[in-house]
Amino acid sequence: MNSPYRSDKPLTFVLIHGSWADVHFWDGISAELRRMRHTVHALPYAGHDNDPNRRVTHAMIVQSVVDSIVRQGLSDIILVGHSFGGTIIQKTVEVIPERVKRLVFLNAFVLPDGQSAADQLPPAFVSAFEQLRAASPDDTIALPYPLFREAFANLGSKEQAEWLYRNTPVEPAGPLFEKLDLKKFYSLSIPRSYVYLMEDNVFPQTDEYSFHPRMSSRLGLYRLIQGSGDHMVTPRYEPGHVARLLFMGARD
């Protein structure tokens, strides 16, 4: 019997992680998508992963992603962004729209034209991040454990949350506060989907601050896929569940 999560023609996924993460965020999900016989590229990018330089701009991040896609000759791709990765795929598709079949936002930022990721956060978060940034030696932000536990890993056990936190890198602060020109993004007609893990507590569960419907509604006409899950624990410990949701968002 054919799996309902396989396409007649395998899809090509390009996966872009978010803040306080690295390319290993996608390890389990990538394995599950490959098990479904899809092609997967989880891309590292500037200021993160193995790049020792944390003083990067958003444009440098986007250029590193574009360079990887072009260098590997990828086309007809499903471009997926998680969390802050949503801002990256918004700008990446502006540069190489001809290579993108569909955009999929996984509990991801969708910025309005002229705003930054920080502009989307409650004032208390912004104030805390500014203080952490100022106190760091290299303009980065390290998440305090209580914030990580309650907001990013709320569905996990104590052991799961602690393991994830030990493996959480610091985040370059600069790109979070950059206001982005997204006029071209909003002129594109490339299909887009929003995959929403419903117990995600990174944002307060209000219409004013939320991944869905606040972020998702900015996409105009889009496909909505919803499932249970939080920001960090579910992708790590239930990768098959998240992979299936991504496929439903990506399929024709």
TrEMBL record:
Pfam families the record matches: Abhydrolase_6
Keywords: Hydrolase
Keyword flag Hydrolase: yes
Location of the AB hydrolase-1 domain: 13-212
Molecular function GO labels: hydrolase activity
InterPro entries on file: AB_hydrolase_1, AB_hydrolase_fold, Sec-Metab_Biosynth_Hydrolase
Protein name per the record: Alpha/beta fold hydrolase
Annotated organism of origin: Cohnella thailandensis
